[in-house]
Amino acid sequence: xxxxxxxxxxxxxxxxxxxxxxxxxxxxxxxxxxxxxxxxxxxxxxxxxxxxxxxxxxxxxxxxxxxxxxxxxxxxxxxxxxxxxxxxxxxxxxxxxxxxxxxxxxxxxxxxxxxxxxxxxxxxxxxxxxxxxxxxxxxxxxxxxxxxxxxxxxxxxxxxxxxxxxxxxxxxxxxxxxxxxxxxxxxxxxxxxxxxxxxxxxxxxxxxxxxxxxxxxx
Amino acid sequence: xxxxxxxxxxxxxxxxxxxxxxxxxxxxxxxxxxxxxxxxxxxxxxxxxxxxxxxxxxxxxxxxxxxxxxxxxxxxxxxxxxxxxxxxxxxxxxxxxxxxxxxxxxxxxxxxxxxxxxxxxxxxxxxxxxxxxxxxxxx
Lengths: 218, 139
Prior knowledge:
A: Cytochrome Bc1 Complex, Chain C, B: 5 helices
């Protein structure tokens, strides 16, 4: 069966031929293909690397205060290619945060956040928040002395807020002292809630770019 | 016909993007192979021995330590300030509604530059802070 036949088969049922052709024929403004315009794409690529390496890491990681650190040691020193996969996850995460921040700076300097792109700017700021929370929760999962200290500050500082602070903290993270329970909840954020949010927001973000075109373009 | 002003997505831009993706993936592999992800001593729950934030949170940590020095005490305001800044950034398109022009562009470069410098300064504060600066925050 040739590729053309497969496409025919799909087109007969879904009528996608025209959409694919339009997508491929689409033209982009030449000035929007330079280096500063790659940053959002690099962030997305890094996210894909995070998904793949994250799934691999999740096969060995134990989201439990008593076992977390040992499981990271196991991944690092015993699992075949474990150290490489973990280091890729670490570096792609850092690259993702850096690319998101620079992308945001590029969009700001271009003034591309203004009408009619307000909603996409806001989706972008939410994606920044999601990215930072990804980074922070991932850092906490390592559960070594350095990450434990930083996690304590980030988690305890909002608990100092009047009225709702302590309550919020108990609901989302567990006790007012950072325990293994906190770790389990940060793990839930890191591998479930944030991936779902990120995927939905990225979809919105890309659809809006598609709909509105690149600022200053054609 | 291909004009100078625009390029077709296929194959021109797609090939470029695939090539760039290969370069980025290659760089990530090199980084991961040469500089493995760090792993320190095991955490002892309830006992904080060191505080070292990831680089992207260091301005936030720098602000917290600075707040301890200048104001001391009320931590909740130190938490609310970054939240407010983030809210302003979120609502930026509704705050800055002026027409585009050369003057507006200059203003943006100035404001953006000042913001980046401020973040770098706060990050520096976080790295130069000693452990005691965080003691107030911890149980």
